Amino acid sequence: MKNTLELLDEKDQLKKRALEMIVGAEAETRKLNDGENTEFDGITLRLAAIEQEMKAIEEDAKRNLNNTTNKTKTMKEKFSLLKAINDVANNRQLDERAIEIVNEGQAEMRKAGVNYSGQIVLPIEERADIKATVAGAGQEIVAEDKLGLLEPLRANLVMVQAGANYLTGLTGNVSIPAYSGSNVG
């Protein structure tokens, strides 16, 4: 299954191809021929399928977020990064919640194939509720859609927008073929 970034890229390429066909036919002041009509219909169907896939990914992310939120709410003690840093700095044992968070962070790093070091490794996908102070009422929880932190950043990478492929899920040694073209100067 493709990720959101790959689906957005495919969607963009399909839209560009459809536009090329339409502009080409308009430039020649003609209608699309049978082959172009068939290709255009295929592009339309694929665009609809991409929309469905993106909705499924979004729903899955919300479902995972709700599961994580429910799991977090059942914990008696909330994680405090400041307390964890203080415990490490003073050679004290981390509390049970801090150990659980660090283990989740280490598991994410291992799954991504990334080396990590240090005593506190935080997971990327978990965020706490945002608190807002309301005059006279104390702290109130602010409703917020919590989506993945990295996906919007990946979608706006300059190199991806310039046409580079963003490779995800790579582990171990990866060989990337060298560019054999010539520089035009």
What does this entry look like structurally?
Helices cover 55% and strands 4% of the residues. Helix 1 packs antiparallel against helix 2 (34-74). A hairpin with a 3-residue loop joins strand 1 (131-134) and strand 2 (138-141). The chain is mostly helical and 185 residues long. It has a two-stranded antiparallel ribbon with strand order 1-2. It has six helices and two strands. The two termini are 40 Å apart.
Q: Which key features would you list for this structure?
A:
185 residues; 2 strands
What overall geometry do the principal axes of the alpha carbons give? Answer: elongated
Number of strands: 2
In whole angstroms, the N-to-C terminal distance is 40 Å
Low-confidence runs (pLDDT<50, min 5 residues)? none
Walk across the major sheet and give the strand order.
Answer: 1-2
SS-derived structural category: mainly alpha
Continuous helix count: 6
How many strands, which pairing sense, and closed or not: the largest β-sheet? 2 strands, antiparallel
Instruction: Determine Rg (CA atoms, Å).
Output: 24 Å
Pattern of helices and strands? HHHHEEHH
Helix content: 40-55%
Strand content: under 5%
Average pLDDT value? 77
